[in-house]
C-alpha cells in the first residue's frame, strides 16, 4: 500500500504533462481562446522576427482592432519577465519573437476600462516527432 500511493500520484502527474495537441487557426497559427462568452479567439503566427496576433470571431473571421489593448511579457522562469513592445495593427497586434522555451503571457482588454483577460502559451520551437511541426504548433493528440 505504501508503494501504491506514490505510483498513483506519479501516473496522475505524468498525465497532466502529457503531449497534447493545440487547435490551429485559419492561417495555420496557434488558436487561443480569449473570451468564451464573446466567442473571441486569437490566432498567433510568426512572420519574420515578429509574433502576429489576429483577433477572430466565432466564424474565425478577422475582427478590426479599435479600442482593444494588449500587453505582452516573455517569461523564462517565475522570477524573470521581460515586457515586450506591442504594436496595434488593423486586425490584431504584433510583438517581438522570443527565445524557444519561454512562455508568452498576454493581457487583453476589450476597452481601456475593461477587466483584463490573461492568456498564456509556451513557445517551444523543437520539432514534434509525430507531425514534424514546431511543438508550439503541434496538432498531435
Descriptive report:
This protein is mostly beta strands and 141 residues long. It has one domain (20-137): Immunoglobulin-like (Sandwich). It has one helix at residues 4-16, and strands at 30-35, 40-47, 50-56, 69-75, 81-84, 87-88, 92-96, 102-109, 117-123. The strands form two sheets. It has a five-stranded antiparallel β-sheet, with no helix packed on it. Strands 5-4-8-9 form a four-stranded antiparallel β-sheet, with no helix packed on it. A hairpin with a 4-residue loop joins strand 1 (30-35) and strand 2 (40-47). The protein starts with a helix and ends in an 18-residue tail after the last strand.
What order do the helices and strands come in, and which of them pair?
Layout lengths: L3 H13 L13 E6 L4 E8 L2 E7 L12 E7 L5 E4 L2 E2 L3 E5 L5 E8 L7 E7 L18
Antiparallel strand pairs: 1-2, 2-3, 3-7, 4-5, 4-8, 6-7, 8-9
What labels would you give this structure?
mainly beta; globular; four-stranded antiparallel beta sheet; 38% strand; Immunoglobulin-like; 141 residues; 1 helix; five-stranded antiparallel beta sheet; 9 strands
Amino acid at each position: 500500500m505504501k508503494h501504491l500511493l506514490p505510483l498513483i500520484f506519479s501516473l496522475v502527474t505524468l498525465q497532466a504533462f502529457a503531449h497534447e495537441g493545440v487547435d490551429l487557426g485559419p492561417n495555420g497559427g496557434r488558436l487561443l481562446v480569449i473570451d468564451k462568452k464573446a466567442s473571441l479567439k486569437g490566432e498567433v503566427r510568426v512572420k519574420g522576427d515578429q509574433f502576429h496576433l489576429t483577433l477572430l470571431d466565432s466564424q474565425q473571421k478577422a475582427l478590426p482592432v479599435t479600442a482593444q489593448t494588449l500587453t505582452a511579457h516573455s517569461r523564462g522562469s517565475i522570477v524573470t519577465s521581460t515586457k515586450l513592445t506591442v504594436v496595434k495593427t488593423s486586425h490584431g497586434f504584433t510583438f517581438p519573437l522570443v527565445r524557444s522555451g519561454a512562455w508568452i503571457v498576454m493581457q487583453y482588454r476589450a476597452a481601456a476600462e475593461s477587466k483584463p483577460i490573461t492568456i498564456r502559451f509556451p513557445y517551444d520551437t523543437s520539432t514534434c516527432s509525430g507531425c514534424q511541426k514546431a511543438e508550439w504548433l503541434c496538432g498531435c493528440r
